[in-house]
Amino acid sequence: MKLTTLLAGAAMALGLATSALADGHEKTKVGFVFVGPIGDGGWTYEHNKGRLMVEEQLGDAVETVFVENVAEGPDSERVMTQMALDGADLIFTTSFGYMDPTINIAKKFPDVKFEHATGYKRADNVSTYSARFYEGRAIQGHIAGKMTKSNIIGYIASYPIPEVIRGINAAYIHAAKVNPDVEFKIIWAYTWFDPAKEADAARALIEQGADVVLQHTDSTAPQAAAQEAGNVVTFGQASDMAQYGPFPRVSSIIDEWGPYYVARTKAVMDGTWESMDTWDGIGAGMVGIGEITDAVPADVKEEALAMKAAIADGSYHPFTGPIKKQDGSDWLAEGEVADDGTLAGMSFYVEGLTGEIPQ
Amino acid sequence: MVRLEKRAQPSQTFAYLTPLLAVLATFLFGGLLFAALGKDPVQSILTIFWEPLFGEFAFYYRPQLLIKGAPLVLIAIGLSLGFKAGIWNIGAEGQYIMGALFGAGFGLAFYPAESVLIFPGMMLAGAFGGWIWAMIPGILKVRFGTNEILVSLMLVYVAEQFLASMSLGLLKNPEGFGFPGSRNLQQYDSAHNAEIIAGTGMHWGVVAALIAVIFAYVLLARHRLGFAVRVTGEAPRAARFAGVNPGRLILFCLGTSGLLAGLAGLFEVAGPAGQVSIDFNVGYGFTAIIVAFLGRLHPIGIVLAGLLMALTYIGGDIAQSQLGLPAAAIQVFQGMLLFFLLALDLFTNYRLRVGRVEAA
């Protein structure tokens, strides 16, 4: 009881401070809670780049703080509380596992705004945001299907969650569309970031005949493994990974959080911030497609760029029927487009993929 | 010329002094590290050690010390018994995970029924989970003479795979839209390890840690089994003559440490963490090894060491946020603590002699 009272008191004091901030007298303080180290070269690295963009574009009007390597659970609650107590006006919590902690702490600090990445729980002062990475996967699938000679595409998956399954489906649909003989071999690494495991997975896939390796893990280890093998195509994940271009890395999916972070920080400054759910893709600039190198034949590159443009302007949706589920049952009829609800909770493979989603 | 000379008797003074000297040396070299990173060393160290205890928001951080320190102490107490007897359980992290899985699984099996019996049942299940996981290296060692260090460590990775599988399969929240992770036990009253007095950080895990400390203290100081533990570590042959059954002692030490680690996992999953998730374990089982040694394998020492480690974690996060210190620098700082402790430990058994070596 006592703590709640004290926290409420602190929160009220902060509330007063916040209103002063809206007048522009003081700096707006923005906190970032990171799950990995900012030098991971992938997920957290890109979130931190977004933070730096906030500092760069809003200059003296903002102050950003961050804590890296924060474990999901009670540690993250403590870090969020600490930022709120220290006067943060807006806190971005950048990992799925921060979902319940964010909701818990947001309750205690009703005047602080929270933004949780990739989750589904919202509150009056909690927004959620995520990116439609599957749009990038569709383009990767197209290039992969065109470039494979062995017709075997390796896929290093992290965890069997909707986000990852969506990516596999999107890549497979577009690879199979241009190359009906294509086969996907999927390895579940059960990690988001573990260079040694990822390298092992890449080598295992290459040994099984894969000459294209897609990854949904964040390290550059698979790129290095492909480089070693010599004739294997890869794509950068989360970050551009351009240092492995022009070959094996022929393109990439880049998380572009910066513009969103700047917009939301501005909204807090203007007092126009509202709780909402954002799921943006290539069109809004949240998903970037890294440069397609010359290792890709010119006509394939052209088709890929055309698809990117079509996805961006909304004229094409990567999940457009006819698409059947793996068990042969109908999912999308001719011309039908998947709804966001089904996509968000996707837990099935599309027809043509082999193997089962592990439980 | 400076040389090391073995002491006839280990120095009692140094045994108690080394932790203090290690902390001072860590301050000094940690300060240099922070200065090299362009931060004010005094302010950095104050932020880590002073801010959580006496700073403006100490009312919030002090209870957090208990939340962060309790699992460390609970696990370290169990480990210390084995370490004293020369039985090396390195796999407390795995036993912690299994305790959480067994305990949470037991509770979730009854969802949404409410009963006062559910939480005690979860405690039993959690303790059993940790115990059984530690008995694997125990029985293998007694029966086949395998190395308990390797087996217990390897079982951590097996436990992690179980954890991932449970988060994605059997224990997955059916209302979680396909996302991994179990239901949140904080929202299930009968299973929630809530604070006993709100705002104090005092949950059942803290109580259990205190009981374990007292239990270990009495055991080591007063009980025949404690004597067996000590004498086995100090003089294994003498222990045989004193009638100690080494097999039973191995099973007791590994079993107890597993049981306590399992309990720590249960209290964490049902309380502060709330849910079984893929990344549920955060290394308490490994950090507890440091805590056990930092506390000189002594129950009271372990309490102090556990709180000190908790303090560096909490203060470290504050320093990251307020001063922009990188997480890696904080980890180096924590590493220094153990490094200096082990290095200075040399002086418990050796002394420095300045002067010439006398001719024989």
From TrEMBL, chain A:
Residues 1-22 form the signal peptide. The keyword Signal applies. Residues 27-306 form the ABC transporter substrate-binding protein PnrA-like domain. Keywords: Signal. InterPro entries: ABC-Purine-Binding, PnrA-like. GO terms for cellular component: plasma membrane. PANTHER family: ABC TRANSPORTER SUBSTRATE-BINDING PROTEIN. This is BMP family ABC transporter substrate-binding protein.
From TrEMBL, chain B:
It is found in: Cell membrane. The keyword Membrane applies. The chain crosses the membrane at residues 14-37, 65-83, 95-111, 117-137, 149-171, 202-220, 249-270, 282-311, 323-344. The keyword Transmembrane applies. One of its GO terms (molecular function) is transmembrane transporter activity. InterPro entries: ABC_transp_permease. Its main location: membrane. Keywords: Cell membrane, Membrane, Transmembrane, Transmembrane helix. It is a multi-pass membrane protein. Pfam families: BPD_transp_2. GO terms for cellular component: plasma membrane. This is ABC transporter permease.
